Amino acid sequence: MDRAQLWVYLAEQPLLWLTVTLIAYMIGHYAFVRSGSRAVVNPVAIAALLLAGLLVLTGTPYAEYFEGAQFVHFLLGPATIALAWPLYQNFARIRRLILPMLAALLVGSVVSVGSAVAIAYSLGAPDEVWLSVAPKSVTSPVAMGVAEKIGGLPTLTAGLVIITGIIGAILVTPLLDVLRIRDWRARGMSVGVAAHGIGTARAFQVSPVAGVFAATAMVLNALITALVASLLVTL
Questions:
Q1: Count of other CB atoms within 10 angstroms of residue 38
Q2: Is residue 105 within 8 Å of 112, Cβ to Cβ?
Q3: Which end of the chain is more exposed for a tag (fewer CB within 10 A), N or C?
Q4: How far, in Å, CA of 198 to CA of 191, rounded?
Q5: pLDDT tens-digit profile of 200-230?
Q6: Where do runs of H (alpha helix) occur along 41-90?
Q7: Cβ neighbours for 213, distance < 8 A, ≥ 6 positions apart
């Protein structure tokens, strides 16, 4: 069986794109480890680039890819819920800081949604585009649901969420170092609000405390952003 026949055979299998997605991420993670865990060598970014290149080379529509790899999308929900465990373990610490955390979350959510929508609107983007941009800083399942409810394009929102998370995970450490923000709680809150799950994963790699506060910020920001985005549409 030559390569062309092998590809035709594999393309007919329902788990082909799930397998390809896992292999792409393994390659990205290997590169990340070999680099000394440098933030710029982000495994999600590498996997996304590899998958995008493969889809272009094979002429595979995204809908066909998603049909095979949607199990990964399904797992985003349970993975988000699983973050409740570290929150439970550190509940006493979080409870003592709940008021300043809520204030920071509210400001962060309003700035995130407002600035993204303002930029898109000022550049003349159509309504469905700037509505898709609004929930870009929350985790994918929530962001896509919010975009659909307010009149945006869920698929566009999903892409923007991934890009936002990757950029946030890459830039958060050097940016906060330049700003001389040393408190791991503040660093975690920042990345959780700005870069959702991908940024939270990076926070856990850097510091357990930062990871806990990033997870808290990510979960609460999803709720606040849904309200802020809905209010924005109403206005």
A1: 12
A2: no
A3: C
A4: 9
A5: 888 888 888 888 888 888 888 888 888 887 7
A6: 43-58, 62-82, 84-89
A7: 94, 101, 184, 185, 186, 187, 188, 189, 192, 203
pTM here? 0.72
Computed from CA positions of residues 163, 164, 169, 172, in that sequence, does the dihedral angle turn out positive or negative? positive
User: What would the two tokens of residue 143 be?
Assistant: 């962001």
- Closest C-alpha among 115, 82, 90, 45 to residue 184: 90
Q: Tell me the per-residue pLDDT of 24-57, one tens digit each, with 9 for 90 and over.
A: 989 988 998 888 878 778 888 888 889 989 989 8
Contact 65, 11 (CB under 8 A): no
H/E stretch holding 99 reads: helix 98-122
CA–CA separation, 202 and 188 (whole Å): 10
Count of residues making up the chain: 235
